[in-house]
Amino acid sequence: MLTYSTIETPIQQHWAEQQTMRLFVIVGAQKSGTTWLQRSLNSVDGVHCLGEGHFIDRLVAPIADTIRHHNNIMGLVAERLYEGEGFYPPIPDAEFSSVA
What we know:
By secondary structure, the chain is mainly α. The protein has helices at residues 10-19, 34-42, 55-81, 93-99.
């Protein structure tokens, strides 16, 4: 008797392979060995790393722009409304740099 599992077309085989695929993300600081880890994992059969995403770079730049814009606006508010003494202090670059 033939069962579904004994009939395997190329489409079914491809679907079965796709069902067993596991996704993972490697996150690390610069110069911490993430490229080495990616290359090491790529040498294993069945493991495919697609490269570095640099999503942190894409995330930090808009945040930095927002903080600079906020500080500029607060500077104008301090100058025009509070005679140069702002109610809210600016966000220091050093504080932001420690996060970025």
